[in-house]
Amino acid sequence: MSMKRYSQEFLLEMYRKMVLIRQFEERVKFLFLEGIMPGTIHQCQGQEASAAGVCMALSKDDVITSTHRPHGHALAKGVSLQSMMDELFGKITGCSKGKGGSMHIGDLDKGMITAVAIVGGNIPLATGVGLAFKMRKEKRVAVSFMGDGATNEGAFHEAVNMGAIWNLPVVYVVENNLYGASTPVEMVVKTERISERASIYKMPGVTVDGNNPIAVYEAAQEAVDRARSGRGPSLLELMTYRITGHSRRDPALYQPKAERQKAKEKEPVGRFKKYLLEKEKVKESELDRIDTLIEEEIEKAVEQAQKAPFPQPEDALEDMFVEAI
Q1: Domain of 127?
Q2: For residues 96 and 151, is the Cβ–Cβ distance under 8 A?
Q3: Contact 36/302 with Cβ under 8 angstroms?
Q4: In a domain, 190, yes or no
Q5: Mean of the pLDDT values across residues 267-291?
Q6: Nearest Cα residue to 157 out of 119, 191, 123
Q7: What is the pLDDT of residue 252?
Q8: Distances (CA, A) of 293 to 19, 208, 216, 268, 309
Q9: What pTM did the predictor assign?
């Protein structure tokens, strides 16, 4: 996966993040199907490597913004599993105090602004955060996660242009899963690669295998180092695929069967596990232990979330404003 050598501790933490995201999403999927969990969800099974790879290149003080599909980004950045599960159940103990649900996950203390469900809506936020860091002369970086569809929004072009002309410490991360909802990306984007769009803003643009967490980490590390050292923003395009529907009621029939099957064979969690076993000589028992511990942690989180209290009507008057980052 890479010519560089990484410690087993680093690789196992990368694996842990990816498995945590996958198991969380799978457990939440069945909670919805069983009618136990309220609201709606947009899940990221198949895109775990992009969240884990990018966030492992960030420091605790760096800040991310996310989309209507935020669970993986949140878990990778360190938002607690329990607070997220509580939020999805609409409980006061949730990371957004039960007011946001699945599409509005975040925790400023962990470096994640509450996710924005409007397509492209989080991109200007990341640019603004980057401007704040630069004005305060802080060596911090802002990251905006977005889907391929968001790159056709006016907010994308305005925010990226601002990041470029003001040389802001921002990394714009496009998770290209080939579909904007059900629309194939080639129907709405003329360029061969979305990363080509970086050239018109005179910033680096790179396309990497978004299902390879090490390739993602290395590309993100370079972009983050560039931003932190005052050399301005970058655009990363991570080629990936969601092996689930756009939202919970979407059977994804627009995805050709052969394409879907190929994507399942290349999905990042199983692929990285195989790499760790064969190339890094990690013991399978060690990976199984991680899998089991996460499964137990998720079950405890579900149990605790179901027992947690709901917000009261008067809580709607609280948290109208938040402190600056």
Answers
A1: 38-69+110-285
A2: no
A3: no
A4: yes
A5: 97
A6: 123
A7: 86
A8: 11, 31, 26, 20, 26
A9: 0.95
